[in-house]
Amino acid sequence: MSEGIIKDLEKSGKLRKQPAGVTQVEELLREAARDLAEAKKIKDIAERATYLLAYNAMLKAGRALTTRSSWSRKS
Questions:
Q1: Structure letter (DSSP) for residue 15
Q2: Residue 73: strand pairing partners
Q3: 20-56 pLDDT, tens digit each
Q4: Helix axes 22-42, 47-68, angle to 10 degrees
Q5: How far apart are CA 33 and CA 31, in angstroms?
């Protein structure tokens, strides 16, 4: 991501630096893996729930990526 975009997002209050440890990133990735495993188990039973779990897994993996690079969307 371009430094200019990051600085603009930080200046507008939409992005902030967040200290993060490896443990936090690993837990997010473990949760994402659990969500995907659960989605696989229920794929023939509950289609909507399968998509929701897979989507949540994607969000957690993305959060792990942004957390590791110490950037997080400001809440």
A1: E
A2: 15
A3: 778 888 999 999 999 999 999 999 999 999 999 999 9
A4: 170
A5: 5
DSSP character string of 26-40: HHHHHHHHHHHHHHH
Measured over the CA atoms of residue 30, residue 68, residue 13 and residue 5, the dihedral's sign is negative
CA distance linking residue 12 with residue 10, whole number of Å: 5
Kindly report the number of other CB atoms within 10 A of residue 41's CB atom.
12
CA-only gyration radius of the chain, Å? 15
d(CA 26, CA 4): 29
Q: What is the largest CA-CA distance in the chain?
A: 46
CB contact at 8 A, 14 and 67: no
Structure pTM?
0.67
Is 18 in contact with 67 (CB distance < 8 Å)? Answer: yes
